[in-house]
Amino acid sequence: MSITDDALRANATLAEEYRPTGGPPAPTIAVVTCADPRLSGVVRLMGLPDADVDLIRNVGTVIDDDTMRSLIVSTRMLGTSEILIINHDDCGLSRFSGDDLVERLRAETGSYPIAPAQFFTFTDAEQNTREQVRKVRSHPWISSEIPVRGFLFGVQTGRLTEVLVEDAAGTAVS
Ligand SMILES: [Zn+2]
Q: Around ion ligand 1, which residues have CB less than 5 A away?
């Protein structure tokens, strides 16, 4: 019996308590964060109702092509008016080198696929957060009216610390 089988059995019972929210989704804020299970409670730790948050997760809190796609739909189609990018300390993507992983996988599998083009590993979470914020702020399809702010989540403290990101003029803005 696999974990998935157990989950499906549980779902058959738990779904009896399920109450649909009704209507189309109407989130007010987009949150990009890591897939790390320690980040799963971050929405509630900000006091935000689940229904208000368009939650976009991937390994390493990366603003890549797919995250940009989600953010554009979120702000242009769903109506979210703010974007938060929440990186965290002790991230798995800061514990290995993407190049090393590629070499290992090529050696183990003998395959050289074109995707993923990179794993977006990093060493400095704060600096990495700044880069992700800048990628979103500079995207021409993200309105300049939408505030884009970056944070680090402390996995031991549950606290968010803002990462200030300078705009093009060198002024720290949030
Ligand atoms: Zn992480």
A: 34, 36, 91
| Ligand 1 centre distance from Cα of residue 33 (Å) | 8
Confirm or deny that 54 is annotated as ligand binding: no
- Spacing, Cα 63 to ligand 1 middle (Å): 13
Q: What is the pLDDT along the chain (174 residues), one digit of tens a residue?
A: 899 999 999 999 999 999 887 788 899 999 999 999 999 999 999 999 999 999 999 999 999 999 999 999 999 999 999 999 999 999 999 999 999 999 999 999 999 999 898 999 999 999 999 999 999 999 999 999 999 999 999 999 999 999 999 876 566 665
36 annotated to bind ligand: yes
Count of domains in the chain?
1
Residue-range definition of the domain harbouring residue 108 = 26-173
**Residue 139 marked ligand-binding:** no
| Structural domain includes residue 168 | yes
C-alpha pair distances (Å), 37 with each of 16, 59, 85, 86: 26, 10, 16, 14
Q: How many helices (H) and strands (E) does the chain have?
A: 5, 7
Q: Is residue 2 in some structural domain?
A: no
